[in-house]
Amino acid sequence: MNENHAEHCCGHHHEHAPKQSKYEVALSKYDLNISDGEVREAVKKIIAEKVHENDTPEVKKFLMGSIELTTLKTTDSDESVMAFTERVNQFDDAYPNLPHVATICVYPCRLFTANVFLHTGTRPSNNCTFCPMSLEILPLFS
User: Fold this and answer.
1) Burial status of residue 66 (CB atoms within 10 A of its CB: 0-12, 13-18, 19 or more)
2) H or E element in which residue 7 lies
3) pLDDT tens per residue, range 78-116
4) Contact 95/110 with Cβ under 8 angstroms?
């Protein structure tokens, strides 16, 4: 019996539709058979209608405060993360009227360094992936 057939306790068989994943269910609500030209026209319309009303200092400040700066190079070291965080600090000092970026993302093994050297309201976050850089032993700190 294949996966689309089910046997009930009464012994009869009938076919079931294959179970959809939550992604397939969500995507099934939209017409995905659109051309590049239709997408291009829709984007032009959104730009024409929305850019002007969103071209404000408030929106730009909101966007600035939503940015996540990331350094996830295999060559990252304590020194490169210190330099990275110092650039964030310098930007914050040079532009005090702008919000700081939301977060900086570094490998877990570099999180302590980022935390020590970051002097803005920005908080460091980490990328927990299975790769050699993220599997280094984290420095212990209190």
Assistant:
1) exposed
2) strand 5-7
3) 999 999 999 988 988 888 888 888 888 888 888 888 888
4) no
Asked if 85 and 105 count as a contact pair (C-beta separation under 8 A), the reply is: no
CB 121 within 8 A of CB 102: no
Cα dist. 1→5, 13, 17 in Å?
6, 10, 14
Please state the pTM of the whole predicted model: 0.58
- Strand 68-70, strand 13-15: pairing: unpaired
Cβ-based neighbour number of residue 132 at 10 Å: 9
Angstrom distance (rounded) from CA 56 to CA 112: 37
74: which residues sit within 8 A by CB, 6+ positions away?
131, 132, 133
Residue with tokens 């532009």: 95
Distance CA 109, CA 98 (A): 30
